[in-house]
Write a structure and sequence with these properties.
The chain is mainly α and 119 residues long. Helices cover 58% and strands 0% of the residues. It is built from 8 helices and no strands. The chain is globular. The model has no long low-confidence stretch (mean pLDDT 89). The structure holds iron/sulfur cluster (2 copies). One iron/sulfur cluster is lined by residues 18-24, 37-38, 64, 67-70, 72. One iron/sulfur cluster binds next to helix 3, helix 6 and helix 7. InterPro entries: 4Fe4S_Fe-S-bd, 4Fe4S_Fe_S_CS, HdrC_iron-sulfur_subunit, Helical_ferredxn. Keywords: 4Fe-4S, Iron, Iron-sulfur, Metal-binding, Oxidoreductase. Residues 49-77 form the 4Fe-4S ferredoxin-type domain. It holds the Pfam family Fer4_17.
């Protein structure tokens, strides 16, 4: 899998500057499921890549950036990975669980308003 220079740069910034404080992990079930902390996750991406299900499981909500003391943009990095996967022809139909997840997570039942405060 070939990732774009933009994706590599976004991931490198996170892997080199994340201080593993864990603030973003507190509210994000996705991060809790797939990593010990973002630094470790993005280092893994840069050295061996990630399973496509991982970038597709981020909801791109931006909550992590709001609470991060460095305002690291994890959502931008995951979105860039997703663009690269599409450009490489990884079809979404191979990710049916993601389709179900996105359908449910945008339903009224599971949708809340993120006001961006740090509480
Ligand atoms: S943008 Fe992704 S990583 Fe950040 S809090 Fe939302 S789901 Fe978690
Ligand atoms: S909040 Fe920012 S610095 Fe802290 S673990 Fe998350 S990405 Fe790293």
């Amino acid at each position: 899998m070939e990732y774009s220079q933009e994706t590599i740069e976004l991931a490198t910034v996170i892997s080199e500057t994340c201080i593993s404080c864990g603030r973003c992990m507190r509210d994000c079930l996705f991060l809790q499921k797939y990593c010990e902390d973002p630094q470790q996750l993005f280092q893994r991406f840069l050295t061996e890549g990630l399973e496509p299900i991982i970038p597709y499981s981020c909801m791109l909500c931006g909550r992590c950036t709001v609470v991060c003391p460095l305002q690291l943009k994890l959502d931008e990095a995951f979105l860039a990975m997703r663009r690269d996967l599409i450009n490489e022809g990884v079809p979404l139909k191979r990710l049916r669980s993601v389709q179900v997840h996105q359908k449910l997570s945008t339903s009224k039942l599971f949708t809340a308003v993120n006001r961006g405060d740090d509480k």
